[in-house]
């Protein structure tokens, strides 16, 4: 981020503002208690040593523990220590809650912003956003839980400690004030280099994640072709590259932490040497000398913590910055080219969709009536999926020309069905799929997986074919008037393809409109009509 606290973060993620306010309040109270603790410890120690700091010398026969004034100071010190422990405990608990709420809100806002972007662009950057929303958001927690509190402490505790030291000994305050800027200077020098390494690591990690996802997605095909040796070598190479990128950042973090620790220790030592020499010369009393020695680390500790926690939060800051830039972008108007009708058919007139590869398709005319099974065919990259996304109203208005009319009640099957953490049964019941229709569809299209099996959002626990069948059953079990199916037979065996086409035909026979995007000859053979897309031209067969 350009600033320690990005204004966009405060504006777009409200829980962060509450986190800063609460952290500042707890830090101010904690600072008062720490200063009081230091003064009390110094006063008690000086009184015990000299027995004159309070202007009272007890008789020789009375132990210093019998001095009522010292006992009062010790009781006050115990109360201050207990109060500081309570404040620290409550602060950690509230901070943990606020950090969780902030991360959840940022992730939610990022997902919402991605939902308003062109899904084709999101798919192209899937590896990057997968990393930002998963590992990147977790890496952002140290920024909120470590760096931000340290920054607030540096703004509150350091000036308070300097003021307390100046009250007792202005010479020590001058020494501390002169040496204090050394830490920020080294922080800036090392931080600039760290930011470059972190940005490079984010790019490498996102790319590795996308490559690994591609390898995992193609694993069933590679296993069927008995070509698993090379993917294994590729996975090992990806792991080595990730290790090298991560270790580079860690080495730099360890080096910077050592430098900051050395500078802070040296600064405290300079103040301590000055006080020691003046104690020997008799130019400073023991009480202010002890108080200053106890409090002076509080001048440097917060600033040093800012530097060390910066490296722990660097990865998360890069991910958060990418998310904030996405959230701050103006939302793209979508679906304005559609007309939702009371009928059940689909009508497309003069549809042209622009993208990074040009206009695909161009000037498409298509019609699908209730009771028909219509196929949109063509090679990969011809624009079949883009047509379905346009029918769903997911593409930006600026990318679509033409008119589309279709019913509002649509059931959609994407090329890769999405899953949520839970059981297979939970995933089948998503988005309004009816249990009775699920049972009927699953009898016609065997899932070959127990309904109680737990699955993750990434599909672990299911093969590619099982995941596809879950998506197909879920899509066909909705009581919709229009079914849009994108490559429903891509990962299925020949027997299952026949089952899927039989159920799709039954939905058409029930009066629904079924539009399938596919280049599978088996799908084309059962279609009532086929619209073929070829490059930038659209043809009707």
UniProtKB/TrEMBL annotation:
<keyword id="KW-0547">Nucleotide-binding</keyword>
<dbReference type="GO" id="GO:0140359">
    <property type="term" value="F:ABC-type transporter activity"/>
</dbReference>
<keyword id="KW-1133">Transmembrane helix</keyword>
<dbReference type="InterPro" id="IPR027417">
    <property type="entry name" value="P-loop_NTPase"/>
</dbReference>
<feature type="domain" description="ABC transporter">
    <location>
        <begin position="346"/>
        <end position="541"/>
    </location>
</feature>
<feature type="transmembrane region" description="Helical">
    <location>
        <begin position="249"/>
        <end position="273"/>
    </location>
</feature>
<dbReference type="Pfam" id="PF00664">
    <property type="entry name" value="ABC_membrane"/>
</dbReference>
<dbReference type="GO" id="GO:0005886">
    <property type="term" value="C:plasma membrane"/>
</dbReference>
<feature type="domain" description="ABC transmembrane type-1">
    <location>
        <begin position="25"/>
        <end position="315"/>
    </location>
</feature>
<dbReference type="GO" id="GO:0005524">
    <property type="term" value="F:ATP binding"/>
</dbReference>
<protein>
    <submittedName>
        <fullName>ABC transporter ATPase and permease</fullName>
    </submittedName>
</protein>
<dbReference type="Pfam" id="PF00005">
    <property type="entry name" value="ABC_tran"/>
</dbReference>
<dbReference type="GO" id="GO:0016887">
    <property type="term" value="F:ATP hydrolysis activity"/>
</dbReference>
<keyword id="KW-0067">ATP-binding</keyword>
<dbReference type="InterPro" id="IPR036640">
    <property type="entry name" value="ABC1_TM_sf"/>
</dbReference>
<dbReference type="InterPro" id="IPR039421">
    <property type="entry name" value="Type_1_exporter"/>
</dbReference>
<keyword id="KW-0812">Transmembrane</keyword>
<feature type="transmembrane region" description="Helical">
    <location>
        <begin position="147"/>
        <end position="168"/>
    </location>
</feature>
<dbReference type="InterPro" id="IPR003439">
    <property type="entry name" value="ABC_transporter-like_ATP-bd"/>
</dbReference>
<keyword id="KW-0472">Membrane</keyword>
<feature type="transmembrane region" description="Helical">
    <location>
        <begin position="26"/>
        <end position="50"/>
    </location>
</feature>
<dbReference type="InterPro" id="IPR003593">
    <property type="entry name" value="AAA+_ATPase"/>
</dbReference>
<dbReference type="InterPro" id="IPR011527">
    <property type="entry name" value="ABC1_TM_dom"/>
</dbReference>
<feature type="transmembrane region" description="Helical">
    <location>
        <begin position="174"/>
        <end position="193"/>
    </location>
</feature>
<feature type="transmembrane region" description="Helical">
    <location>
        <begin position="70"/>
        <end position="91"/>
    </location>
</feature>
């Amino acid at each position: 981020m350009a600033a320690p606290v990005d204004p966009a973060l405060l504006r777009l993620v409200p829980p962060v503002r509450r986190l800063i306010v609460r952290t500042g309040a707890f830090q101010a109270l904690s600072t008062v208690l720490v200063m009081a603790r230091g003064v009390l410890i110094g006063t008690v120690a000086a009184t015990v040593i000299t027995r004159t700091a309070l202007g009272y010398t007890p008789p020789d026969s009375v132990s210093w523990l019998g001095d009522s004034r010292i006992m009062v100071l010790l009781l006050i010190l115990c109360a201050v220590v207990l109060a500081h422990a309570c404040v620290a405990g409550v602060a950690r608990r509230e901070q943990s809650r606020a950090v969780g709420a902030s991360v959840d809100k940022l992730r939610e806002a990022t997902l919402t912003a991605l939902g308003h972007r062109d899904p084709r662009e999101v798919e192209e950057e899937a590896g990057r956003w997968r990393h930002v929303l998963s590992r990147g958001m977790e890496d952002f927690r140290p920024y909120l839980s470590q760096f931000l509190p340290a920054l607030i402490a540096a703004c509150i505790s350091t000036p308070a400690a300097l003021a307390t030291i100046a009250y007792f000994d202005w010479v020590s305050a001058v020494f501390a004030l002169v040496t204090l800027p050394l830490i920020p200077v080294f922080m800036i020098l090392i931080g600039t280099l760290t930011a470059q390494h972190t940005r490079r690591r984010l790019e490498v990690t996102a790319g590795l994640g996308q490559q690994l996802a591609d390898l995992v997605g193609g694993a069933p095909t590679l296993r069927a072709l008995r070509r698993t040796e090379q993917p294994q070598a590729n996975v090992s190479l990806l792991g080595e590259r990730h290790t090298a990128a991560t270790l580079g950042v860690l080495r730099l973090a360890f080096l910077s932490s050592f430098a900051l620790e050395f500078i802070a220790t040296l600064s405290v030592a300079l103040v301590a040497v000055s006080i020691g020499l003046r104690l020997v010369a008799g130019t400073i009393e023991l009480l202010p000398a002890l108080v200053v020695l106890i409090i002076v680390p509080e001048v440097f500790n917060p600033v040093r913590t800012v530097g060390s926690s910066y490296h722990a939060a660097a990865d998360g800051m890069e991910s958060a910055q990418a998310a904030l830039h996405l959230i701050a972008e103006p939302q793209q108007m979508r679906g304005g080219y559609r007309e939702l009708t009371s009928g059940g058919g689909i009508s497309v007139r003069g549809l042209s969709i622009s993208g990074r590869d040009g206009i695909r398709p161009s000037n498409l005319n298509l019609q699908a009536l209730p009771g028909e099974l219509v196929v949109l065919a063509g090679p990969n990259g011809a624009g079949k999926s883009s047509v379905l996304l346009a029918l769903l109203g997911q593409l930006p208005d600026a990318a679509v020309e033409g008119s589309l009319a279709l019913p509002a009640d649509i059931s959609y099957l994407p090329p890769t069905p999405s899953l949520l953490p839970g059981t297979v049964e939970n995933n089948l019941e998503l988005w309004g799929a009816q249990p009775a229709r699920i049972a009927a569809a699953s009898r016609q299209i065997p899932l070959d997986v127990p309904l109680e099996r737990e699955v993750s959002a990434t599909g672990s626990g299911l093969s590619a074919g099982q995941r596809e069948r879950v998506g197909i059953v879920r899509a066909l079990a909705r009581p919709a008037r229009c079914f849009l199916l994108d490559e429903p037979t891509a990962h299925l065996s020949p027997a299952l393809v026949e089952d899927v086409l039989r159920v799709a035909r039954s939905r058409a026979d029930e009066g629904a409109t079924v539009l399938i995007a596919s280049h599978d000859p088996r799908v084309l053979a059962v279609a009532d009509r086929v619209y073929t897309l070829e490059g930038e031209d659209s043809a009707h067969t």
